[in-house]
Amino acid sequence: MAAKNNVEAPxxxxxxxxxxxxxxxxxxxxxxxxRPDDLVGTVVRGSPEHVDQxxxxxxxxxxxxxxxxxxxxxxxxTAALARLETDIERRAxxxxxxxxxxxxxxxxxxxxxxxxxxxxxxxxxxxDDGRTLKAPHGRTxxxxxxYGVVVSIVPWNSPVVLAFTQVVAALLAGNCVVLKPPExxxxxLIRSVTMFAxxxxxxxxxxxxxxxxxxxxxxxxxxxVGKIGFTGSIPSAPHHGECRPDD
Length: 247
Prior knowledge:
By secondary structure, the chain is of the alpha/beta class. 42% of the residues lie in helices and 20% in strands.
């Protein structure tokens, strides 16, 4: 139901942890950058404790996910991506309001995600086969092994396409994922990833929302995280931008 002046009523998107929608009392407002008085919606202001829960869920789900072959994972991911071919207009309308993209660009980003990622998944059989390299003595086999838990942190400018580029690659490789959407533009992305996750085992992909200064270190320095996919600002980096010698 529309609010006054033809502005849509605000929506709320909870987090996703271990296959369950997780809410909380603290909220982050998401406003239209072109009309700051337009409240597009809200997300949970997550905490380091939520990060711990999401990482634990990903860690618990990862061994069974990694036990599948690349082709088996690709088949499941392809079916999950097909879900994103629906609900495009509603998600695009939200995307325009929270991000500022023209409708055609927002719609195009959402439409492109399943098409791009399904092309990448077509290489799964080659990954199952591995590679054999020539060596001076004997043979060298190259096989692929997952990192375990991967954290994905994406920016506001093209969050849906950037998130799925990181997430699908990590999942295909046998990892499980904790995703942090941009706090200024999370709504269309959360809806898209939740639709995708509904077709996968619980905990395979988890979503934690929050402010970088409050959950950035918890995400990027967590001892159970094996890999980080990151595009964003300095407050989201390890130790607020300080590089460690062992990174």
